[in-house]
């Protein structure tokens, strides 16, 4: 008979082994803080875009019924005297109603080089509309009827190096078009890849993930695979392998994706990597419509899209997530936020909200890249959004998994609040290392491939070998995808002291519109991985 102590030791060893096997890959200690900004802005922030006047345009849809925000001066659109769009002023934490004349439900958009929001498509009377919002005091939406050649619902927009935007896909639209139009582009162009990735009864290829590659071609991901596409010649340049496992990552099996920060921008060959996270296993959408809510995917897939022989590398997240958002942060990390751990995108189809954001550190070793953050108390389910603000906070809003505004007797009431997530780099403990930009001034105009000197201050001791400059293009965010979002790291070429606690860093701006399409960017100085407040720059 074995000694009781030996039996107990063996049992404890087995118990420990089982515990270790059950734990997800290591996630560092929780960080970050939450701040409720507005309990009720009157509408649900299904779509959001930060503009260069530090105001966020947000909207839901015009056929939800009456919102909780009245149009000004007794104005009505038909029988509806309430707003379905608002402008949120980040600086003053105030908002005002905006007037939409057509339905923007599940639409898309991007910001033109001159700073105007060009917003496209939607539902019913909005499906071929182009809407323009100029960031100026008291301005409102302007709409162009039949501004699109095809109906666009659940499409994706991307700004191009020449300043035009391309609008790709949408429900039953296996094609793309451009805006503004010219004589040669006033039509649609076929994109068979969208036919090939269309699943019967589920689609799983709406709101495709689109990124401008460093060679000027477009990386287009839909369902579980991707292509590199020459939109000028209407030609597939490269076909990427399917993500291992083959599960869908696109709407309604909604994951999210980002182009990881571009670095070494003066190199002869610049690498570009895409990260796709979350989604729902094959069949989840159909099962959810029948009341069975499958566990979401708990993996991210990462690929070097510039490699001659690119392959996906899978990583495991601390928790499964569907309908999550991914936001590029100024310190070079990625924030995963919002969503659910079961179900799919669609009316009433998500369960078990994921309240903890996660920070992904792309430069860490595999297995140590995820850091779980402190949780919110507000579920952000279907139709939630998140955008980076100039001060480094992330604005979070939305969540309405219902065909109408529903506030009672439902699992997840329509959410009219907006809150801010403050990443750990904003903590007061970093005050002495946090840089503060002194000049250039905000709204500065910069050119391609030029030297740029930025003066900044640091209260504590400066680590000259730990200074860089980051440019971030703000995103048009809806349905778990941040369109046009990109980050460029400008390496420090020279850092020098110019006075007490005052320094200058010299960098070279991106060489072309293939790296940074013309327009407004947030520019940050980063010191020891702690970013300054941003300033706005317009690259031309």
TrEMBL record:
Keywords: Signal
Pfam family, one: GO-like_E_set
Cell cycle as UniProt keyword: no
Superkingdom: Eukaryota
Matching InterPro entries: Gal_Oxase/kelch_b-propeller (IPR011043), Gal_Oxidase_central_sf (IPR037293), Glyoxal_oxidase_N (IPR009880), GO-like_E_set (IPR015202), Ig-like_fold (IPR013783), Ig_E-set (IPR014756)
Glyoxal oxidase N-terminal domain ranges (all copies): 46-425
CDD domains: E_set_GO_C
Domain Galactose oxidase-like Early set: residue ranges: 434-539
Keyword Signal (UniProt): yes
Family matches, as SUPFAM superfamilies: E set domains (SSF81296), Galactose oxidase, central domain (SSF50965)
Signal peptide: 1-29
PANTHER family found in the cross-reference section: OXIDASE, PUTATIVE, EXPRESSED-RELATED, SECRETED PROTEIN-RELATED
Protein name, UniProt field: WSC domain-containing protein ARB_07867-like
Organism of origin: Prunus mume (Japanese apricot)
UniProt gene name: LOC103321392
């Amino acid at each position: 008979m074995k000694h009781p102590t030996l039996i107990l030791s063996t049992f404890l060893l087995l118990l420990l082994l089982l515990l270790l096997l059950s734990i997800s890959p290591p996630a560092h200690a929780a960080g970050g803080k939450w701040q409720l900004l507005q309990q009720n802005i009157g509408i649900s922030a299904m779509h959001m875009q930060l503009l260069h006047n530090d105001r966020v345009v947000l909207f839901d849809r015009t056929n939800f019924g009456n919102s909780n925000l009245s149009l000004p001066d007794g104005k009505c659109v038909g029988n509806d005297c309430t707003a379905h769009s608002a402008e949120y002023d980040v600086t003053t934490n105030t908002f005002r109603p905006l007037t939409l004349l057509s339905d923007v439900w599940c639409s898309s958009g991007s910001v033109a080089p001159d700073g105007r929001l060009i917003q496209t498509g939607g539902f019913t009377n909005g499906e071929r509309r182009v809407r323009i919002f100029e960031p100026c005091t008291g301005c409102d939406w302007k709409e162009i009827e039949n501004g699109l050649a095809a109906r666009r619902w659940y499409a994706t927009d991307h700004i191009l190096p020449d300043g035009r935007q391309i609008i790709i896909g949408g429900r039953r639209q296996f094609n793309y078009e451009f805006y503004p139009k010219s004589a040669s582009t006033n039509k649609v162009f076929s994109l068979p890849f969208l036919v090939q990735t269309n699943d019967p009864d589920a689609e799983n290829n709406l709101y495709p993930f689109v990124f401008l590659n460093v060679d000027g071609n477009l990386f287009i991901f839909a369902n579980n695979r991707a292509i590199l596409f020459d939109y000028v010649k209407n030609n597939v340049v490269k076909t990427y392998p399917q993500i291992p496992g083959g599960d869908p990552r696109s709407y309604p099996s909604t994951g999210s994706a980002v182009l990881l920060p571009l670095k070494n921008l003066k190199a002869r060959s610049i690498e570009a990597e895409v990260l796709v996270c979350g989604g729902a296993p094959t069949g989840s959408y159909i099962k959810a419509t029948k009341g069975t809510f499958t566990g979401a995917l708990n993996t991210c897939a990462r690929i070097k899209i510039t490699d001659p022989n690119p392959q996906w590398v899978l990583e495991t997240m601390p928790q499964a997530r569907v309908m999550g958002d991914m936001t590029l942060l100024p310190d070079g990390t990625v924030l995963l936020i919002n969503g659910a751990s079961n179900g799919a995108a669609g009316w009433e189809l998500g369960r078990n909200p994921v309240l903890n954001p996660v920070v992904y550190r792309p430069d860490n070793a595999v297995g140590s890249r995820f850091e779980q953050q402190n949780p919110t108390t507000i579920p952000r389910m279907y139709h939630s959004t998140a955008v980076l603000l100039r001060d480094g906070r992330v604005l979070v809003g939305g969540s309405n998994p219902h065909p109408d505004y529903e506030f009672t007797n439902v699992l997840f009431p329509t959410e009219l609040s907006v809150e801010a997530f403050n990443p750990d780099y904003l903590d007061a403990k970093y005050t002495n290392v946090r840089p503060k930009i002194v000049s250039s001034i905000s709204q500065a105009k910069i050119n391609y491939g030029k030297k740029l000197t930025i003066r900044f201050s640091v209260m504590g001791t400066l680590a000259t070998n730990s200074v860089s400059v980051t440019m971030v293009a703000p995103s048009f965010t809806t349905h778990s995808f941040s369109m046009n979002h990109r980050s460029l790291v400008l390496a420090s070429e020279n850092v020098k002291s110019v006075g007490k606690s005052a320094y200058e860093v010299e960098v070279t701006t991106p060489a072309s519109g293939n790296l940074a399409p013309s327009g407004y960017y947030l520019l940050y100085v980063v010191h020891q991985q702690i970013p300054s407040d941003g300033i706005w720059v317009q690259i031309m």
